[in-house]
Design goal:
The complex is a heterodimer of chains A (about 325) and B (about 325). Chain A has about 325 residues and is an alpha/beta fold. Chain A folds into two domains: about 220 residues, 3-Layer(aba) Sandwich (Rossmann fold); about 80 residues, no CATH class. In chain A, about 30% of the residues lie in helices and about 25% in strands. In chain A, strand 11 and strand 12 form a beta hairpin. Chain A starts with 5 loop residues before the first strand and ends with a helix. With about 325 residues, chain B is mainly alpha-helical. Chain B has two domains: about 70 residues, no CATH class; about 230 residues, MetI-like (MetI-like fold). In chain B, about 75% of the residues lie in helices and about 0% in strands. Chain B is built from 13 helices and no strands. The longest helix of chain B is centred in the middle third of the chain and has 38 residues. Classes of the chains: A alpha/beta (about 325), B mainly alpha (about 325).
Chain lengths: ~325, ~325
Amino acid sequence: MANIENLLTIKNLHTSFRIKDTYYDAVENISINLNKNEILAIVGESGCGKSTLATSIVGLHDPINTKITGEILYKDLNLAAISESKFNDVRGNDIGMIFQDPLSALNPLVRIGEQISESLVYHTKFTKEQRKERVIELLNQVGIPNPERVVRQFPHQLSGGMRQRVMIAIAIACKPAIIVADEPTTALDVTIQAQILDLLKELQAETKSGIILITHDLGVVAEIADRVAVMYAGQVIEEAPVEELFNNPKHPYTRSLLNSIPQMNSENEKLQVIQGLVPSLKNLPREGCRFSSRVPWLDANTHEVNPVLHEVSPGHFVRCTCWKHFDFESAEGGN
Amino acid sequence: MWKTIIRRILIMIPQLFVLSLLIFIMAKFMPGDPFTGLVTPDTDPNRIEELRIQAGFYDPWYEQYYRWITNALQGEFGDSYSFQVKVSTLIGERGLNTLWLSLLSVTLLYAIAIPLGIIAGRYQNSLPDKLIVLYSFISYAIPTFVLALIFLFLFGYQYPIFPTSGTVDVQYDPGTWGYFWSKVYHLLLPAITYAILGTTTIIQYLRTEIIDAKRMDYVKTARSKGIPISKVYTKHIFRNSLLPIAAFFGFTITGLLGGSVFIETIFGFPGMGQLFINAISARDYSVITALVMLFGFLTLVGSLLSDIIMSIVDPRIRIE
């Protein structure tokens, strides 16, 4: 990454959902940026708000029950406050999205070729023949054999890996600057996962686009990401370049996550887990360190009253001060 | 696919054979015989006995069945006692009336129900949606004969906009435009009644399907492509939501050929439903057996038709 060029800047983003008549923040005050030619991974367990964040960037939330405040800056646009029709010029054209389950994300009644060329109809001035050519070119690009036949097929006639390749072809059809991939490998089996990750990496190297990769799989992160943001309970609690994060994790949550990956060569037969549960959206404490309930043995005054991100080394940010007092020995003692 | 269709048609033969046996046996168990209706106080009982022997009434049942089925296969169901015409002529005439009524009814039905279902599903919980749901509950709660009688009273008697019975005015000659319009005019009131009563199911089905489809992942994908929302609806939501309705279509078509007993009786419309009721009250066995046979056949054809339609509209379904 010789010349860092900013693509997307998110500033103080709140995404809140309505439950009865109150709005609850599922994404709380997130500020993060995506650079050109970079894969930014956002990790966290289920319910931490990572998919909500992804959906906010692409603007796919239901406007009736969702409120988005803050800024999502792309070029000279604020995507958080743009009209639906203007957003349609950006979606698919400048931002492509890849979904988790490629079977349900493709319309079962529409032929593959048509599903891919659909966005070309609205974002390019291609003629029908040019669109056809482009679809074949895209299918070749994502490594689908015999594309002339596949364009006439339906999603159920393809395997899971092939479907995800089609999804990727849809996302990159208009050569977007940003690709948002929401758990692109979760629904696939392990060998296919590796192929899809390789493909994403390859495409990214070719197009120099920025990828936001949402995942809960730290293996995927290590494999492909350049920079990582760890989310817990709607907040980013640690952000660092990928090597720094794996070699030198700071926040108790990040460390517990890494510690809970089962090791083949470990003598300890017991699976390492994090105590307690993620609080639900409604019961989330809105003050203090969100992780404090999961590390009850840490003294209250080790946490900050209003935890903020601190830069501990260049590009490495950690929320709260509790990490200075956390170690696994004291955790064992606390049990 | 053609192979499967032909096989399905071949399977119908034994099914129809069993049906014909059941119908024949039931008809034999029923009281009375063709000559009961001809008896007058001065008929000689011996003469009737003679006629019975002549007609083969005392032959073994299988011989009688054989005679009936071989004739039936040639489209010959005997004479109707109450109408004094051939059963095939009678059914042909009434069937044609019912066919026209059905076509108009179904056209009106879909023309009313599909737009309403789409509006209700797309704008869920809006005022139009609430009104449509209210309408469909009311139309579901009203029994057929009540609505038919109300319409007949209102539009046939109180404000005589429509004729109250028959299929065509007598002064027109067949083949002229006047004849045609007179026919359509006579069909309108019963067809509207039928259509209004049938809309509930289709509206509710379509509404729920659209509400479900809206939350589907492939709709999210479509929106992530930056397609205008109206296009997302026409291309990705409505099409998928119409599948279950297409699945019923075959049954709807053939089911309608059976006619509607209530509507035809109340509107004095000489169709299949009315014929069936009249035949039953007149113990006109040759008509009843022929009609039941025909209804059974239509049901089988309807299910085959539905399967064929499904395999055309849904690429995931292949009939093999």
